[in-house]
Amino acid sequence: MAKRAHNIKRANKHLNRLQKQGKLKKKKKLPTKQEKFVKTKKNEKDVKHEARHEEEEMDDCDPTDMLEAGDLQELVKTHHKSNVRTNQIKRKNQSSDDETDYESAPRKWFGIDDTKRTVKAVLPIKGIKGIVPQFIEVKDKIEEINVSNGGVAAQEQIAEVTNQSNISKTVSTVELYATRNKKLSARKLKIASLGTKIIENPEENVKHLKELRLMMDEKDRDIFVTVRKLVSVSLLEVFKDILPDYRIRIKSDKETKVRLKKETKLLQEYEDAVLRNYKGYLQRLEKMLEGLRNRKKKKRVWISDLICSTFHRVFKEDKVGAISLECVKAIHKLLKEKTFNVQNKVLDTLLSLRVRDIIKADVDGKRFLTKKEKVAKMSKKERKRSKQMDQLEKELRETKAEESKEIKSKFQTEVLSQVFLIYFKILKRDTKSQVLASVLEGLAKFAHLINVEFFDDLISILHKLIESGNLTYRENLHCVQTVFTILSGQGSALNVDPQRFYTHLYRHLFHFHTGTSNSDMPTLLECLDLMFIKRRKQVTFYRILAFIKRLCIVSTQVGHDGSIALLMCIRSLMQSHKPADILLDTDNSQGNGVYLPNLDEPEHCHANASSLWELHLLRKHYHPLVSKISNHLLHGSPITGEGQLPMEFCNKSPVELWNVFDTSLMEFKPEMVPPKVAQRSRKRKIAEMGSSYMNEKISKVQKMFNLSENSKIYMLTNKQGFITDGPGNYSFDIQCTWLIETNEPNSTLWLRLEHFATECSWDHLYIFDGDSMFSPLLAAYSGLILQAPHPGEDIPEVVASSGSAFLHFFSDVAYNMTGFNISYSVNSCSQDCLGQGVCLEDGKCTCNAWRTGDGCDIPICPGDCGKGVCIKEQDICQCPPGYKGLDCSQVEAEGYWMPAVARHRHLGRASHQALNYNGWMWVFGGESFQDDTFDIFKYKFSTSVWELVKTEGVQTPGPRYGHSVAEYNGKAYVFGGILSNGNITDELWVFDFKGNTWTFGENQKGVYKFDPTPPLEVVGHTATVVNDRMIIIFGHSPVYGYMNTVQEYVLSTQDWLLVNASGAIIKGGYGHTSIYDPITKMIFVHGGYHSVSLSSQTLSSVLYTYDPLKKIWQESVNAQQNTSVFA
What we know:
By secondary structure, this protein is of the alpha+beta class. Pfam families: Beta-prop_ATRN-LZTR1, CBF, CUB, NOC3p.
């Protein structure tokens, strides 16, 4: 190093000396970057060559000539020691020289024609072979024009270039629309792809959630509105699917430093990612909603309604109370910002809060001790055990995923404090506020939870509000309800006289009439219950009489729903205050003075001097229940006997009855039966004969039985006799009842129909096993029963095992027939044992050796077993090989019938449907005359056992019959049928065999250019599954009658189609059968009930074939037609 430095110093001295002598050449000036770029390669090499030549000249001047011999040797030694360092410096200088060469070299456009393309140099890349320059092409770049030098000409040149550029980019509207659709399709595909990936595996594809969320910031002016909408809706569905049911939050800084298991860490990272994206999604939605704030109020009504309905739903579904607390705080904040100038619906949302009685600290009867109390009262061992039990209870709650009652109580308490803070602020701020009605309604609902300290002040404020006269009668009701809710709960110990509030309610009772809305009736009924039933010992006698009288007056001027509720309320008041019965006495002389109905003071209106004459008017009310209750009250509200009220009404409160008969539902209960219209000429002829003919017939019957005009029930006590409607045809519009009671213990009553002929479907006879119509129904007859209609059949018999029978017959006003003749006997034998046995005194038959049954009507071995042998001990026939059946008369090779012995039999039914699935026979619905549900039974072929299927689901189908059932992919599809109300339906229900669950199939109306549009309401049809289609054939429609159409339901797409079939001319019908043959790929339809004309029908034996693929009908001509069939 020292030698090198010395050499440099000597060289510099030599250069200075040459410069003074004028012998040193001038150093050339280095070119600038622009000059380097302009020069060619040749010039660059020359410059480098000259620079090297100058260095060689400087090296020719040897500085060692000026050194002494000793100094030269010392420099050589130093050179050997610093060899390594010298090499490093050389390498460094060499790399520096390379960089210098690159900087001095001009930029070269590799393979680019500058005249045709415009390029831009970017940062180079250093590789193995050296430094490689990089360039990018700049498209559609307009050359810069020097405006400052050109002036106006330059500006014109710019305008010309710009116009030419615009003309070249002009496209048509169709092209713009096509381009937009192409962009939109690409965005939709991307949205669908990202959403599908996230839902399929959220943990692994959570990274795509951010990508999908960022698409809400779409910038393309052509499609940004549509894309943002699609992304917003798609993200909503994604979040609904992936957000967990439990509560999650973003980890704190301290929690992020905790070491966790790999699985736990991955789960937390996934939850953090979901939360961050969900937060960003909500913030973006808020930003999107900012544009709606400047719109007119009329256009924002639907937004406020949507928000309020959302709050209602949140309050109802929140079980813990944490979310409700945040929502209530948000409402409170909004009220402050608006200075409580909001609409009533904002405060009405608070009525949906799930706030029950506050759970006190003493939960489940346990008192929680503090730490000091535990130390003082418990030993160390007890404290340790208590701590373990608390930990165990905590773990059990975590296992059940339940919040502790203490946490629920805490949230509910905070929610209530916020709610009451809102209410009290409004009451204190302005008593004329527009939200006062909602405040009073809320106070009435939550009054039992108000702190006792506020009772006196609150009652005083409510009284001043009522006295001000600025409240509506609805708001007055809420004030009264609030006061008595307080006094009936914790405020019962207060020394408060609520007489003034009784007066307020008494004054406003006349506001209830048919000219106003009846929506406030439940509030009135609740007030009456709080004021008189729960405080019955604190109400004066005259006050009770005044309210009963005024309520009776009000019941005459409201609808039937209000009348029913008020009359039941009067019934409760009179039962709880027995002296009030004096109002039922029309000759009441106990009262003093004259009743003053317009006086608003209940204590001084002299109600004891009046009577409830309004009940006599209500006995003739158009509604049957109002008439019954009025008659019940006039008889003194008896429990049994004349004037008693059915128990189904006695057990319900007035509010419940009002809800049942609410007229706002636009439904009259019970349903009104329309008057019958004469359909036949004979009916019209009899109706024209007038009342004289009817009176003559009725008088004949009365004279024969020596009955008065009002007699309706006939008592029969003989052990045997006859029941008849009288000679000739029975009378018009009559109701007759017979009660057979022989007072014989353990007896059996037999009734035999010797003759029966009534107007079918209009005149009926009912037979009950007991002494009233509430006894079990044995039979119901209407129509014609012939004597021995078919060989082997006989007239039906009815057996009353209770020993008594109640028979009721009624006829209409138009058409009559010969009536009936019924014989009865007690402890007699059925059909006199048919001559096959001996009748004993207890009414039982002792049959011959080859007969059995109650009337010896069942042969032990039918037909003497034919080709078999009778085994009497086992009551069966032993058939020879090749023969089967009960009497061994059926050839086994040709198929045979055998009764299936089943255990656990279920109720009988008709017009049901069954199918075979997984070794069971599933029976769906049907008419059983007793069930009010759509039952499903299944029969196990291998064990011969019936089972009732317990179904699950929010919705289940109602009872029906005449429907169809078809199985596809483990599900049963139930379509059509007649409901319990007699209406034919087009409902489609789907039953899942795996989970025993019902789902309602939303019928998608088919697209069809002509009426009718499927699905059509049908009954008596059939359903056959072919491939993925359920084919509905024929049926009866309430609109189109007997149908010959074919409907198809595509199971894969849930679409309905109405088939336009061709081929043979077919007749519409119902009650047929259909089956699919996979070999011929045809559906065979046989039998049924077909229409011949508009007024006549017939049973059919025609066999049709239907090709479901070609939609072609054919009639099987070669099929043997022997017997008409009705399935």
